[in-house]
């Protein structure tokens, strides 16, 4: 029992670290995008301001029970993703609850949050919410195809599904990273990653929120605060997942920050130069090149 | 007595021909009748023995080989009666059908098909 | 020998009358032709040593059967239909 | 013993006397007539009984006081006794049925009928070839006249055609007989047969051959062989149904017996030709029957087909190629006799010839039930005689190496099933097309009684045969007994029937489950437990639900029997019972006519594949009695494996063979859908389990076969999910989902390792729970809203919160999101596939499960979220019994999610030592060679997070102001009609567009094309039956030429 | 065109088959097994001179009973078809030709009428003679019956309005048939089997009253056949 409680405490600490890191990253990305566009952009702590602002909102509307449950689902998904994954290799306190499950559990947890989000937004009864959800779901599921293949390629390569074991196998220098030892799988994974991070050009499902209405704006006050928090956690957690899978994991928080930041930059810079895809375009894109790359990855990995 | 055999078979062929080509139902029945006559001739030939006499015993029994075979004759007897009975029945059908439609053409009676 | 010739002669007549019966437009003639055919056949049966059959054929095949046909004709029509 | 001569004495004596009774008291003639028929029947039954009990020897009866061959003799052996008894029974019943018509036409018609019966008896009994001819003429002439009983143009024409064909047959017969007499010097069939042998190969053979040919030709015409059977069809079509019944049942049987006597005379060279002719007729008649729209003629095609089949059996039997052919022939014959007569009789009662209008019968449940029974018998469903015959036939043919024959016979049977059940579909669901809807079918009491008598007799014969054929018949009979017992409750309130059924299932389970172990235990607990829960859900029924509970009970019982079966026959028996009962359940749906037919045709095809599979394995797929599923091991050959796998793939709706499934699952009644989709779909899984156990992996080609099946499973999973996402209809969505989910199970099983099997079985249970839950929830929604289109719903969360929770739990479990049960199945599956090295399949399965997410969301969103429609603002929560069943399932899901080990550990035990042990438990963590999963911990973490975060949210959020659902802003305006803004129709359009390349329903198109092609061939072929007597004559002659060519092929 | 080709094909095929029969035909060189038996033993077994009759009535008696049944059936069938219901062409809207009514039927000439009055009884008596002597000379029940029927035909021709006494006909038809079956039954009870004619003494060869019950049976057959044929003719003649 003590073990569990101790682990829970450690995990909460990890959560705090990652959450703050995630919030900063969000702010940073906003600035970078603004600079690329030739604007100054908001300060880096803008996400904190946003959360505080929304938390202090006094008016609140509720459409029903799912309005509560949706954001909770969502954040459980985000935190769960983080909690079932080792953040720093070798660190005892940053192992979280990774003893409870392997990479399959982790990737399925991605859906948990998505589902909650979708349910909550849909209860609002606003058609744009539904459209946004539909787009998000459609695109994300399509991105899962190359990701699944990349995952299987890794499983074939390492004969394990345990993230810890996969990270362990990549220790000992950059030459051992899956990026090097299994470049095709990494490529497939990264292509999927673009979609999963929902950055441009795969950010069309966020469009309804740009029209001043849609899921995030329909949620407001504390609900929105919860969701924005989650967004940062979720973001960071996905980066950590990919870092663990393809880029040798991290042996310290510092390495983790460097690697995930680099990873994010790739996505952001790759994204800003492309125009936004429509949903069916992005789906088509995923079931062409990334799919082919993924299959190639599996074939090559299984061959060995 | 191959001549009778040939005649019988020729009549049968003629009957087949008529049955296939005639559209008049009475002529179809006539074709059947012709075929039957041919058949009966074949049957009689089958029982014929060269030099044999009719299978009717007399007081002074002669040697048996001098009779023709009586069995086919008995069979033909039956066949004739049955044939005529069936033909008569078919004609009754035709009369009744004619009563319905006023036609003897078999092509006018294709109500049930396919 | 004469008998064979007679049979052949009758046979030819029978086949001819059969063909005639099938081709004539007059059904009455057709029925009568078949009747004649039957009658000839009964003569042949007699020659073939089958008196019982000959009698039956003459009485039933040639006689009553023809009458039945004629009755049937009377109750329908004696006109033929077109064959194709 | 009463000499059978009295049959003729009674018939002739009474027939000659009847005219004198014309003026006698009314009813006297009828009484005498029926008494005479009864007397005739009694004589034959007396013989049959004495022979069966061994009280007498075969009877040889000499006439005229001389021994054969000098006079005509008769024989009553077993075969003769069976045939005359059956014929006399049918004709007696037929006479009772027809008595009003006959008496209305005067004594002449009764005389005709009496002599008709006598003629048939004579045909069976006589041992003299010319006497056979005479009796054939008697039968023939009587039937020519009887065909015209109604004196309408159609009947008269048919009688005339019949007479012409009969005359031709007798001409050829006489020509053959006289030549045979000439060379053998005798007319006695037994002496001829022995003497004919000596002629083969001698100089006389060249002269004899044409005569023998003509003899056989004549009997083939009498047997109505294709294509020389146009006249016969017109006869069945045109005669009064009661007469058609007698011709189809009686005189066809007598003709069959005649040819059975004749073929040995013709010699062995003819057996093959006759068998081929019979098969061609069987296939052709049934094929052409596909296009038939009129009941009488449809039955005509079926009759002719059956005669062809019987001819094949008899010929092959005589040839010595079919070991137990007598049993096959008698079974088929009696089955045909009673079932066909029964259907003709029903046609007579309804008086409706167009099958489209057979909806008239639906208002008479008793008649409809009789019709269903006859249909089942005719299509060879158990327990009817044809089932046992067909099974034995296919077994014998395979063991004799006659595979091609099996193909044709099964093909023909399939056509027959198709058109028979098309008709039955119209009867149940067709309604009445044009007018006259006020008419209620009236049958006179004696007609109804005769039909019931026929059905009862058929059942009795079925019971007798079943006792002879199947091991442990008492156990196998249980489902039928249960269903029949439930029929007694039909008049009670549906709830009473439901409770009785529930009690029956529970009691049966209580009796049977404690004695089981291994796979039978697993599947029985699954089927019976699941069945009980689903039965609970049906208790909301308020409608009459006639026949629902018996069929449901039959289906559950047959599933249990399937799992208990220890021989191939038992398995197939249970399989077919299940097919039939589930077909009826599907057909109960309001718009289920076409889907049910499709279901039936595909199921029948699948069943035939299974049967062929068993046969090709020599009938010994199961080792023998007692060797249940659990006890099997060893390896099969390639062919049986493929056949069985294909058959089971049909049942699990593997991609390409799935076209029946969406309709069948979706169009059944709502609670039936739940049962069919959640329980019945596992029958195919059971099939695969048992097949794979039996086959093992040792045989050649196994690697390719298993990976093929694995791929099919994966592709099925993918397309099932993809199509589900595109459905507008909630039940169709779930139906496609079921198809996809079963794909995972097949994939798991095909992996052939411990993890895969545990995955498949675990997923079966899990799928049962969540899919049953979803279907029941949707059933409740559909019950209240009256629509199945999701876009017509929306916002129901407020009105039906309980159902909403069910659906939400259901979809979380379904989509495989942790912590609920679905995840366990997925996790096990991926591990199994990785172990097997099937990475691509695993990736595809993974992708499928993400696509599953799409439809899951769609289901919950479109029904419960979004904007509510005004029409549904006031609807109530689903009925209590439905909700109760759902919450039982939810509790089960929660329990298994919390502690997966309580489900997985027993399953591991059941899978047992068959494979290398790969899975290990450490406390609550399940270890595979690749990863680990602690379901308990995951559940705890998620619950804790959920609770904590929910509390936080409640603490930090100010008291919210509740707004109405439609209180939304739309481009800065409050929409006037918010309900129109429910975004649900064509929800995943981008997906549809992106995948348009592979979303084309290729399989449906392919099968449609197959169907259309078959129908086109049928439509084309049937035009040879132009109704023109002249053309029929030409066809008869052409048939002669074909037969000749065939015989030459057979001789060489 | 195809049809003609098919018909030609059929005829050619059967012609070929018949040709095979003709070329292979050798004809009987002697009596076969059962024929020999009939010829050798027929006299002592049954005492009939006309072996064909012996075969027809006794050896193959069941055939003959069947044959009589066929005739009976045909008569019943014809009676059923033509007797029941009114024959009206209006049912199907037929037009020309057809049925004659009483007016169009001409009266027969006087000579025919008178002549037939004399000849008809004679023919009938001849018919009876034929079947009574069936076991001795050619002819028998069928031929005799047919002759009697011809007499009636003559009667019909000479007296177009003559109508038969249906009751008598019916009773003859029924009784002769029933008694025939009854005699067969007697054979079963008293002699060797159904239709065995030997329950009456075989008697002296060549006599009318010999050959067991053959003359009796054949006479009944004659009556029966005559009655049936007359019935058929009557039905066919009657213009409804």
Structure description:
Chain A has helices at 2-36, 46-55, 65-83, 103-123, 127-158, 163-169, 178-181, 183-196, 207-210, 215-218, 221-246, 253-272, 279-286, 289-303; one strand at residues 61-62. By secondary structure, chain A is an all-alpha fold. Chain A has one domain. The termini of chain B are far apart. In chain B, helix 1 packs antiparallel against helix 2 (25-47) and helix 2 packs antiparallel against helix 3. With 114 residues, chain B is an all-alpha fold. Chain B is built from 3 helices and no strands. Chain B has a single domain (2-52, 65-108), classed as Helix Hairpins (Orthogonal Bundle), CATH 1.10.287. With 84 residues, chain C is an all-alpha fold. Helix content of chain C is 81%, strand content 0%. Chain C has 3 helices and no strands. In chain C, helix 2 (27-47) packs antiparallel against helix 3. The longest helix of chain C has 25 residues, at 51-75. Chain C is flat and about 45 Å long. Chain E is mainly α and 240 residues long. Chain E has helices spanning 2-24, 33-46, 51-59, 61-83, 110-132, 141-158, 166-190, 214-237. The longest helix of chain E has 25 residues, at 166-190. Chain E has a domain at 46-71 and 109-235. Chains in contact: A-D, B-C, B-D, B-E, C-E, D-E. The interface between A and D is large, with 87 and 84 residues.
Order of helices and strands of chain E: HHHHHHHH
Helix/strand structural class of chain C = mainly alpha
Could you list the spans of chain C in which at least 5 consecutive residues all have pLDDT below 50? none
- Gyration radius of chain C, in Å: 14 Å
Q: What's the pLDDT, averaged over the residues of chain C?
A: 88
In helices, the fraction of residues of chain C equals: over 70%
Question: What is the ordering of alpha helices and beta strands of chain C?
Answer: HHH
| Topology, number of strands of chain E | 0
Classify the oligomer: heteropentamer
List keywords for this structure.
heteropentamer; D: 1052 residues; mainly alpha; 3-stranded antiparallel beta sheet; two-stranded antiparallel ribbon; 39 helices; E: 240 residues; 66% helix
Task: Describe the protein's topology.
The complex is a heteropentamer of chains A (304), B (114), C (84), D (1052) and E (240).
Chain A: H1 2-36, H2 46-55, E1 61-62, H3 65-83, H4 103-123, H5 127-158, H6 163-169, H7 178-181, H8 183-196, H9 207-210, H10 215-218, H11 221-246, H12 253-272, H13 279-286, H14 289-303
Chain C: H1 2-23, H2 27-47, H3 51-75
Helix pairs in contact in C: 1-2, 2-3
Chain E: H1 2-24, H2 33-46, H3 51-59, H4 61-83, H5 110-132, H6 141-158, H7 166-190, H8 214-237
């Amino acid at each position: 029992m003590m073990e569990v409680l101790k682990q829970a405490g450690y995990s909460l600490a990890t959560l705090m670290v990652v959450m703050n890191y995630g919030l900063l990253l969000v702010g940073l990305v906003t600035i970078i995008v603004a600079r690329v566009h030739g604007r100054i952009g908001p300060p880096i702590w803008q996400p904190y301001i946003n959360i505080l602002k929304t938390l202090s909102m006094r008016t609140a509307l509720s459409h029903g029970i799912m309005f509560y449950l949706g954001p909770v689902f969502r954040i459980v998904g985000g935190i769960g993703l983080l909690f079932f994954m080792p953040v720093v290799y070798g660190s005892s306190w940053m192992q979280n609850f990774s003893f409870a499950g392997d990479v399959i559990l982790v990737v399925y947890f991605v859906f948990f949050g998505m589902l909650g989000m979708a349910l909550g937004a849909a209860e609002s009864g606003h058609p744009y919410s539904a459209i946004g959800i539909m787009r998000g779901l459609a695109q994300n599921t399509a991105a899962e195809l190359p990701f699944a293949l990349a995952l299987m390629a890794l499983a074939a390569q390492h004969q394990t599904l345990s993230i810890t074991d996969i990270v362990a196998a990549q220790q000992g220098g950059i030459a051992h990273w899956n990026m090097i030892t299994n470049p095709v799988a990494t490529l497939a994974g990264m292509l999927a990653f673009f979609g999963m991070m929902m950055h441009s050009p795969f950010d069309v499902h966020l469009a309804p929120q740009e029209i001043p209405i849609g899921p995030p704006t329909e949620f407001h006050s504390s609900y929105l605060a919860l969701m924005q928090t989650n967004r940062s956690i979720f973001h960071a957690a996905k980066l950590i997942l990919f870092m663990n899978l393809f880029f040798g994991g991290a042996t310290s928080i510092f390495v983790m920050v460097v690697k995930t930041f680099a990873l994010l930059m790739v996505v952001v810079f790759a994204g800003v130069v492309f125009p936004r895809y429509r949903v069916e375009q992005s789906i088509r894109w995923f079931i062409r090149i990334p799919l082919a790359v993924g299959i190639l990855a599996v074939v090559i990995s299984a061959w060995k | 007595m191959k001549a009778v055999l040939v005649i019988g078979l020729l009549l049968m062929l003629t009957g087949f021909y008529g049955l296939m080509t005639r559209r008049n139902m009475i002529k179809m029945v006539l074709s059947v009748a012709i075929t039957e006559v041919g058949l009966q001739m074949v049957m009689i030939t089958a029982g014929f023995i060269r030099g044999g006499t009719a299978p009717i015993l007399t007081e002074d029994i002669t040697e048996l080989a001098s009779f023709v075979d009586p069995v086919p004759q008995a069979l033909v007897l039956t066949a004739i009666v049955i044939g005529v009975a069936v033909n008569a029945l078919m004609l009754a059908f035709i009369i009744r059908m004619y009563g319905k439609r006023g036609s003897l053409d078999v092509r006018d009676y294709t109500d049930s098909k396919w | 020998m004469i008998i064979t010739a007679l049979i052949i002669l009758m046979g030819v007549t029978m086949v001819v009358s059969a063909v005639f019966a099938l081709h004539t437009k007059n059904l009455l003639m057709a029925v009568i032709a078949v009747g004649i055919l039957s009658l000839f056949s009964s003569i042949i049966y007699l020659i073939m040593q089958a008196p019982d059959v000959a009698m039956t054929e003459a009485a039933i095949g040639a006689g009553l059967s023809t009458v039945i046909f004629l009755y049937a004709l009377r109750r329908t029509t004696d006109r033929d239909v077109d064959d194709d | 013993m009463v000499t059978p001569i009295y049959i003729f004495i009674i018939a002739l004596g009474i027939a000659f006397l009847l005219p004198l009774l014309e003026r006698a008291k009314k009813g006297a003639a009828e009484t005498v007539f029926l008494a005479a028929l009864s007397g005739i029947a009694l004589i034959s039954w007396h013989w049959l009984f004495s022979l069966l009990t061994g009280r007498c020897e075969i009877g040889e009866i000499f006439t005229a006081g001389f021994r054969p061959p000098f006079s005509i003799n008769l024989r009553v052996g077993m075969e003769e006794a069976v045939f005359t008894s059956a014929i006399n029974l049918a004709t007696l019943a037929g006479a009772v049925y027809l008595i009003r018509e006959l008496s209305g036409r005067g004594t002449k018609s009764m005389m005709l009928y009496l002599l008709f019966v006598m003629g048939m008896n004579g045909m069976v009994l006589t041992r003299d070839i010319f006497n056979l001819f005479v009796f054939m003429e008697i039968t023939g002439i009587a039937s020519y006249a009887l065909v015209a009983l109604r004196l309408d143009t159609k009947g008269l024409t048919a009688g005339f055609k019949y007479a012409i064909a009969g005359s031709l047959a007798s001409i050829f017969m006489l020509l053959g007989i006289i030549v045979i007499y000439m060379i053998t010097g005798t007319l006695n069939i037994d002496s001829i047969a022995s003497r004919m042998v000596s002629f083969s190969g001698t100089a006389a053979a060249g002269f004899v051959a044409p005569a023998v040919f003509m003899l056989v030709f004549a009997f083939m015409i009498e047997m109505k062989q294709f294509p020389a059977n146009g006249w016969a069809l017109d006869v069945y079509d045109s005669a009064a149904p009661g007469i058609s019944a007698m011709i189809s049942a009686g005189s066809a049987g007598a003709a069959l017996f005649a040819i059975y006597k004749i073929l040995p005379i013709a010699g062995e060279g003819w057996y093959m030709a006759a068998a081929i002719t019979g098969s061609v007729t069987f296939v052709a008649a049934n094929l052409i029957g596909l296009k038939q729209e009129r009941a009488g003629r449809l039955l005509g095609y079926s009759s002719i087909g059956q005669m062809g089949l019987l001819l094949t059996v008899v010929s092959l039997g005589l040839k010595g190629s079919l070991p137990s052919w007598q049993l096959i022939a008698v079974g088929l014959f009696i089955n045909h006799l009673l079932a066909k007569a029964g259907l003709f009789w029903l046609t007579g009662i309804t008086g409706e010839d167009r099958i489209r209008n057979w909806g008239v019968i639906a208002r008479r449940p008793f008649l409809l039930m009789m019709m269903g029974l006859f249909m089942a018998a005719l299509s060879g469903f158990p327990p009817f005689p044809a089932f046992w015959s067909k099974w034995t036939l296919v077994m014998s043919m395979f063991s004799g190496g006659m595979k091609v024959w099996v193909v044709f016979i099964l093909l023909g049977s399939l056509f027959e099933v198709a058109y028979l059940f098309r008709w039955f579909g119209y009867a149940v669901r067709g309604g009445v097309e044009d007018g006259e809807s006020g008419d209620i079918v009236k049958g006179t009491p004696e007609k109804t009684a005769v039909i019931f008598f026929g059905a009862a007799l058929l059942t009795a014969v079925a019971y007798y045969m079943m006792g002879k054929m199947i091991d442990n018949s008492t156990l196998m009979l249980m489902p039928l007994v249960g269903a029949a017992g439930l029929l007694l409750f039909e008049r009670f309130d549906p709830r009473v029937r439901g409770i009785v059924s529930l009690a029956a299932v529970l009691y049966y389970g209580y009796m049977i489950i404690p004695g089981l172990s291994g796979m039978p235990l697993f599947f029985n607990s699954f089927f019976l437990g699941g069945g009980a829960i689903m039965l609970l859900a049906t208790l909301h029924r308020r409608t009459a639900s006639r026949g629902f509970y018996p069929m449901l009970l039959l289906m559950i019982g047959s599933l249990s029997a399937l799992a208990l079966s220890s021989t191939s026959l038992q398995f197939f028996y249970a399989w077919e019972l299940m097919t039939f009962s589930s077909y009826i359940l599907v057909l109960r749906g309001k718009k289920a006519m076409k889907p049910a037919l499709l279901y039936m045709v595909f199921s029948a095809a699948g069943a035939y594949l299974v049967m062929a599979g068993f046969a090709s394995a020599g009938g010994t797929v199961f080792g023998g009695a007692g060797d249940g599923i659990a006890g099997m091991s060893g390896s099969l050959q390639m062919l049986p494996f493929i056949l069985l796998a294909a058959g089971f793939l049909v049942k699990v709706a593997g991609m390409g063979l799935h076209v029946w499934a969406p309709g069948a699952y979706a169009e059944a009644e709502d609670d039936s859908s739940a049962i069919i989709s959640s329980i019945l779909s596992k029958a195919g899984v059971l099939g695969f389990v048992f097949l794979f156990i039996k086959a093992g992996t040792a045989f050649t080609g196994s690697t390719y076969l298993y990976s093929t099946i694995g791929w099919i499973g994966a592709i099925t999973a993918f397309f099932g999910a993809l199509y589900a996402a595109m459905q507008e209809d909630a039940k169709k969505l779930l139906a496609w989902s079921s198809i996809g989910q079963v794909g995972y199970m097949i994939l798991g099983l095909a992996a052939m390792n411990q993890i895969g099997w545990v995955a498949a079985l675990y997923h079966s249970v899990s799928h049962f729970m969540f899919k049953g839950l979803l279907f029941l929830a949707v059933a409740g929604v559909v019950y209240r809203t009256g629509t199945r289109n999701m876009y017509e719903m929306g916002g129901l969360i407020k009105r039906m919160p309980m159902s909403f929770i069910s659906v939400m739990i259901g979809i979380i479990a379904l989509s495989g999101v942790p912590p609920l049960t679905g995840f366990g199945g997925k996790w096990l599956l991926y591990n199994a596939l990785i172990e097997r090295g099937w990475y691509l399949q695993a990736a595809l399965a993974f992708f499928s499960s993400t696509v599953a997410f799409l439809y899951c969301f769609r289901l919950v969103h479109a029904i419960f979220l979004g904007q509510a429609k005004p029409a549904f603002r006031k609807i109530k929560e689903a009925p209590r019994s439905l909700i109760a069943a759902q919450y039982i399932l939810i509790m089960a899901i929660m329990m298994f999610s919390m502690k997966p080990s309580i489900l997985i550990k027993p399953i591991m035990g059941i899978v047992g030592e068959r494979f290398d042990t790969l899975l290990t438990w450490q406390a609550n963590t399940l270890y595979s060679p690749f990863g680990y999963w602690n379901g308990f911990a995951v559940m705890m973490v998620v619950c804790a997070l959920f609770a904590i975060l929910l509390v936080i949210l409640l603490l930090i959020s100010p008291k919210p102001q509740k707004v109405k659902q439609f209180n939304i802003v739309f481009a800065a305006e409050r929409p006037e009609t918010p309900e129109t803004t429910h975004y649900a129709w064509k929800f995943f359009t981008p997906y549809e567009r992106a995948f348009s390349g592979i979303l084309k329903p290729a399989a449906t198109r392919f099968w449609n094309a197959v169907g259309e092609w078959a129908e086109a061939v049928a439509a084309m072929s049937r035009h040879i039956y132009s109704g023109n007597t002249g053309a029929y004559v030409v066809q008869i002659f052409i048939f002669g030429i074909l037969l000749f060519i065939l015989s030459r092929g057979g001789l060489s | 065109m195809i049809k003609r080709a098919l018909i030609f094909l059929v005829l050619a095929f059967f012609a070929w088959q018949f040709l095979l029969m003709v070329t292979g035909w050798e004809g009987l060189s002697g009596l076969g097994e059962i024929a020999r038996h009939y010829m050798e033993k027929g006299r002592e077994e049954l005492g009939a001179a006309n072996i064909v009759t012996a075969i027809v009535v006794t050896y193959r008696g069941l055939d003959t009973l069947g044959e009589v049944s066929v005739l009976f059936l045909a008569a019943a069938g014809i009676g059923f078809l033509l007797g029941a219901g009114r024959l009206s062409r209006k049912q199907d809207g037929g037009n020309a030709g057809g049925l004659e009514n009483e007016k169009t039927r001409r009266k027969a000439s006087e000579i025919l009428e008178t002549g037939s009055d004399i000849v008809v009884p004679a023919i009938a008596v001849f018919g009876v003679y034929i079947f009574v002597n069936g076991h001795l000379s050619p002819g028998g029940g069928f031929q005799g019956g047919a002759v009697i029927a011809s007499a009636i035909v003559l009667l019909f021709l000479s007296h177009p309005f003559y109508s038969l006494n249906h009751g008598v006909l019916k009773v003859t038809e029924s009784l002769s048939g029933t008694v025939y079956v009854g005699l067969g039954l007697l054979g079963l009870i008293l002699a060797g089997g159904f239709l065995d004619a030997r329950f009456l003494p075989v008697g002296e060869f060549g006599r009318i009253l010999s050959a067991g019950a053959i003359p009796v049976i054949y006479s009944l057959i004659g009556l029966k056949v005559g009655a049936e044929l007359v019935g058929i003719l009557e039905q066919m003649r009657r213009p409804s």
